[in-house]
Each structure stands twice: as structure tokens, then as C-alpha cells.
Design goal:
By secondary structure, the chain is mostly beta strands. The protein has no helices and seven strands. The strands form two sheets. Strands 4-3-6-7 form a four-stranded antiparallel β-sheet, with no helix packed on it. The chain is rod-shaped.
């Protein structure tokens, strides 16, 4: 990309629009005044990569994976969103408006225990080192119920020999 700046200003800063998140850029500068030839072009600057917040986390799924007593174990999974130029560092998992946990940026699942018999709503949000994404769509799931335990019976033997 070549950008020509025309300015009478003495500022040493400028903004370049139209860059794409995740693409690497460097800058070289030359100046032209009333002289016949422009100044020599500088060496390229260090490379920089503009970035934005991750896309919204989608594909949230909930799976009841057991539990015991009054606690059910649940696995949340989601589709990894586009990073938009900066690696995802973490996800937060909110259930019924309260953060119940975090998962590392290289993960797309989280397991937690929740009380049985309640209805739940979950939202997941991705973060990079500076920004956060929009929340996922809210996914509702019905109250957890533990799988019924097989009834235990007994056998009475009369051992009158």
C-alpha cells in the first residue's frame, strides 16, 4: 500500500485508515519540498499488526455429563471466533448473569458443577490482550436432573438346612 500525504503541517504523526486487522505492515518515509528530488526514503519501520476485538463467540452448546447429590456436571462448548489480528487470551462463562469460570484462549470448552433442578442461561465472551468481543447469544437450558439411579433390591434367602 502506498499512501501520499500532502500537508503543510509540522506534525510528525498521522493516521492511515483502511488497514486490515491481522495483516502486518511497516512504514518507510520520504519527504518532498520545493527541491527537484525528494529526500531519500527511510528504512522500513518495525512491523506492526493492527487488531480488533475477537468476533462474537457462537455455536454455544450445553451437555449434561452427570454429577451426584444435588449437583449436576455440565460441559459448555463453543465455536472459536475469528481473532481479528490478536490471539484470544481467555473466555468468560456467565451463567444466569454471573461469571462461573474462565477458560484459556486455546480452549473451546469448560466444565462446571451447577445445582440440579434450576433453569439456566449461559453466555460466553472472548478476550484478546486489549479488547473483548460481544457476548454470545444467550443459550437457555432446562434444569439439570441427574440420571435416575437403578433401584437396589435384595434377595432374602432362607438358609434353614
Amino acid at each position: 500500500m502506498h499512501v501520499r500525504l500532502r500537508s503543510q503541517a509540522t506534525s510528525l504523526e498521522w493516521r492511515v485508515d483502511g488497514l486490515r486487522n491481522g495483516q502486518t505492515y511497516s512504514v518507510a518515509i520520504s519527504a518532498k519540498n520545493g527541491a527537484e528530488e525528494p529526500s531519500p526514503t527511510s528504512q522500513n519501520s518495525a512491523k506492526v499488526t493492527p487488531f480488533g476485538p475477537p468476533d462474537r463467540t457462537d455455536g454455544v452448546r450445553v451437555e449434561n455429563i452427570g454429577g451426584q447429590g444435588n449437583t449436576g456436571r455440565v460441559r459448555f462448548t463453543w465455536t472459536t471466533p475469528r481473532t481479528n489480528g490478536a490471539e484470544i487470551t481467555r473466555y468468560t462463562i456467565d451463567v444466569n448473569g454471573r461469571t462461573v469460570g474462565e477458560a484459556g484462549g486455546d480452549r473451546n470448552d469448560y466444565v462446571t458443577d451447577l445445582p440440579v433442578g434450576e433453569n439456566y442461561r449461559v453466555k460466553i465472551r472472548a478476550y484478546n490482550w486489549k479488547n473483548d468481543s460481544s457476548e454470545s447469544d444467550e443459550v437457555a437450558f432446562p434444569g439439570l436432573h441427574l440420571a435416575s439411579q437403578p433401584e437396589c433390591g435384595f434377595l432374602l434367602l432362607d438358609t434353614d438346612w
